Amino acid sequence: MAAGNQYHIPKVVLGSSVGQRSMSVLGFGTAADSSDYAVLKTAVLEAIKLGYRHFDTAFLYGSEQALGEAIAEALKLGLVGSRDELFVTSKLWCSDAHPHLVIPALQKSLRNLKLEYLDLYLVHWPVSARPGKWEFPIKEEDVVPMDFKSVWEAMEECQRLGLTKSIGVSNFSCKKLDNILSFATIPPSVNQVEMNPMWQQKKLIEFCKAKNIIVTAYSPLGAKGTSWGTNDVMDNQVLKDIALARGKTVAQVCLRWVYEQGATLVPKSYDKERLKQNLDIFDWKLTEDDLHKISQIRQQKIIVSVSHGSNPKFLEELWDGEL
């Protein structure tokens, strides 16, 4: 619901954050095939005007600098009162997922963003790669097993040093999370994973709820129009029928479904109208019948299959035989 020109977005409190940091349940994602500096900067400023306060980036995306410039401009223009009103997430790339490289990698992201601290820093994938290789997909010969305990200790040190208010992971299975939880002194606050009506992550959602880990959905619309995504979510007939019956868009049905599962979400859109539409999901509900129909949709993992399907070593490190 909009108040003036701004929408109210609900928040959740991160379990292991410094000072009980809260995060908007709907964020602005910046993963794109190409980061057009000017387009991204303009979109971030429009998003802030609409009420977005949660911005998701990663070193690999190449969007940190443009996001940082947009934030600096928003502060200068008075669109936000202070840095503390914003929630900024970035991610540790696989080639920096080595104990001695974690803190320097976060410091590099902070320099790109021109910020003194992050609100959330995530281990991007549960896989390490040879240092100095910043590419995606990762070549098979560059994949190396992650030293989870040492990498996580370095992540904890990032939080203790005040470089980030909270830490978490991305693309971690239940088994991988269990491993982290077995030795963590600061448990992960968030697990950011692919999640949409065609990859519903029911087991993972239940596991994370039980462990007080917030799930954030990336590609909640299937990443349509990207090299790693699919049109299958937005073109799904079940979702189209529900959208028609509710007087909503397919995107709004998908986003509302993710929200009703208790997850947070970071869809990517640089279009002002779609940014508005994405916010219009909090004052209506899907019916029991809608939810039942969505639960019957055939499940299909998209992102990893498309991006790393030809790299069995990466997939082996990623899943440990578990989906």
UniProtKB/TrEMBL annotation:
Query: Alphabetically, which GO biological process terms does the record hold?
Result: secondary metabolite biosynthetic process
Keyword set includes Oxidoreductase: yes
Q: What is this protein called?
A: NADP-dependent oxidoreductase domain-containing protein
Pfam families, per database record: Aldo_ket_red
| InterPro entries (alphabetical) | AKR (IPR020471), AKR4A/B (IPR044497), Aldo/ket_reductase_CS (IPR018170), NAD(P)_OxRdtase_dom_sf (IPR036812), NADP_OxRdtase_dom (IPR023210)
Binding residues for substrate: 124
Q: Where is the active site?
A: 61 (proton donor)
Q: Which UniProt keywords apply?
A: Oxidoreductase
- Where the record annotates domain NADP-dependent oxidoreductase, the positions are 27-297
